[in-house]
Write a structure and sequence with these properties.
alpha/beta; TIM Barrel
Length: about 280
């Protein structure tokens, strides 16, 4: 069933767990994530990133995401991820997305606040919740570069408190040491910073660059207030490895066989992540 972003966040807060947010730019990704969530009975977030427009146009994939969410046996939020244009954000709301992430983190603070407030007002008229970001992750979304933590601008807790109060967002994505893309070395998360941001904002916190962490780190992050974990790169690589193995196994492999192998591998990877995100109490 299609549910709002706020409903998924509320479930995560009440159960001290995190919801997985999975980018789904292909039908194989979509079916993998939804079937994994249904099997576990877990609330889940299907995400469409603006940067995937060339691979999966919003006008095509967006309505399919909403339709599959409505037909699902579990609770599904459909969310726009890392949107930098308010016009594009409005398009997703008109399609039926129930959550949006406006990313003005690269802008000056005042401009980020002003645009995020507009996003909150716009989304509110559709009954959707908004995630905002302050501080900058490195590398930017969509990159496969190695860790570049030194380039990240960590979020100031006092500024985060002001940002939350001024914008009225439902969730906050802070910068605390995670990176988009691949982790080539053990990440150095600032757990103390997360705790301060959580205490000062009172908001559900979001982890971007959530693929590839240890189970222990996931649990620590959830204990610090992370309630949404963005997860894509490692799931996508699991799919590509399975497709490659299928193609190499024998001659004359049909495309749909390789696609099915990718889908099954991504489902297993997504299920593993969802089990960890459910937390120590196993609430899904």
């Amino acid at each position: 069933m299609l549910v709002t972003f706020n409903e998924v966040l509320r479930h995560a807060e009440e159960n001290n767990c995190a919801a997985g947010a999975f980018n789904t730019p292909t039908l194989e990704c979509l079916t993998a994530v939804i079937s994994a969530a249904e099997e576990l009975g877990a609330p889940v977030i299907l995400s469409h990133a603006e940067l995937h427009e060339n691979a999966a146009p919003l006008s095509v994939i967006g309505p399919i995401m909403v339709l599959m969410a409505k037909r699902s046996k579990t609770r599904v939020c459909v969310l726009l991820d890392h949107c930098e244009r308010l016009g594009y954000l409005k398009q997703t709301l008109e399609i039926g997305f129930t959550g949006v992430m406006y990313d003005g983190s690269a802008l000056p603070y005042d401009e980020n606040v002003a645009n995020t407030k507009k996003a909150v007002e716009m989304a509110g008229s559709y009954g959707a919740g908004v995630e905002g970001e302050i501080g900058t992750l490195a590398p930017r979304e969509g990159s496969l570069a190695e860790n570049a933590g030194s380039a990240a601008a960590y979020t100031d807790p006092d500024l985060a408190q002001s940002f939350a109060r001024e914008t009225g967002i439902a969730a906050l994505a802070p910068s605390f040491g995670s990176v988009h893309g691949l982790y080539r070395e053990k990440p150095n998360f600032d757990f103390g910073l997360l705790k301060k941001i959580k205490a000062q904002t009172g908001l559900p916190l979001v982890m971007h660059g959530g693929s590839g962490c240890s189970d222990e780190d996931y649990r620590k992050l959830i204990a610090c207030g992370i309630r949404k974990i963005n997860y894509y790169s490692y799931m996508a690589f699991a799919g590509s490895r399975a497709a490659r193995d299928c193609l190499n196994a024998k001659e004359n492999v049909l495309y749909h066989d390789a696609a099915a192998a990718a889908r099954n591998a991504m489902k297993e990877d997504a299920m593993r992540a969802m089990r960890v995100f459910a937390g120590e109490n196993g609430h899904v």
